[in-house]
Amino acid sequence: MPQSPAAQHRLDPAREQAILDAIRELLTEVGYDRMSIDEVARRARASKATIYRRWAGKPDMVTAALHGMMREHPALADTGTLRGDLIAGLTMFCRVYERKHPYVLALLSAIRADPSLGRLLHEHVLATGTAEAEIVLDRAVRRGDLPAAPDTGVVVEVCKAMLWHRLLLTGLPLDDAWVVHLVDDIVRPLLGSPW
């Protein structure tokens, strides 16, 4: 999780959660540009010094808040089939992306204006999901559902692009029928899987 290079100080988990919650609230209420560390500190009932001991600045704080959201999900289900695992996993990630949607909207212009924020978000938030996909695909190879592990990065990149396209451009829901379409009509041919 992003933090100041000099940060040796770990916050009490309840205090850290209060700060991360304040960041998320302010992002949706006033946006990234108008969100101040002073207001985060006030809402979280924390001092600015406490915040700066943990994070180097606003980009690090925001990245930490969104990174935590990506990690807040149940373990991936083992359904016994690659198709079932993909449907279960993508359904779960749809719920995560729906929760992140308002924050991403609040950050779109800031990412273009602040390259350091964009880099941090890519490294700590947007790059997530690969480890989970590797688990699913490696399990499929061991079961004989796939002859060899595919390029996991490509699979994750395509799925994320589809998720964000659906959320940001079409406004259509990430419902069960769409997840099945994504798995059967896009991921299956990408993997070369016959199922």
UniProtKB/TrEMBL annotation:
Source taxon at top rank: Bacteria
DNA-binding region: 36-55
Presence of the UniProt keyword Mitochondrion in the record: no
Keyword Transcription: yes
Cited Gene3D superfamilies: Homeodomain-like (1.10.10.60), Tetracycline Repressor, domain 2 (1.10.357.10)
GO molecular-function terms, A-Z: DNA-binding transcription factor activity; transcription cis-regulatory region binding
Keyword terms: DNA-binding, Transcription, Transcription regulation
InterPro entries linked to this entry: DNA-bd_HTH_TetR-type_CS (IPR023772), Homeodomain-like_sf (IPR009057), HTH-type_TetR-like_transc_reg (IPR050109), HTH_TetR (IPR001647), Tet_transcr_reg_TetR-rel_C_sf (IPR036271), TetR_C (IPR011075)
A Pfam family the protein falls into: TetR_C_11
Domain HTH tetR-type: 13-73
PANTHER family: HTH-TYPE TRANSCRIPTIONAL REGULATOR RUTR, TETR-FAMILY TRANSCRIPTIONAL REGULATOR
Protein name as it appears in the record: AcrR family transcriptional regulator
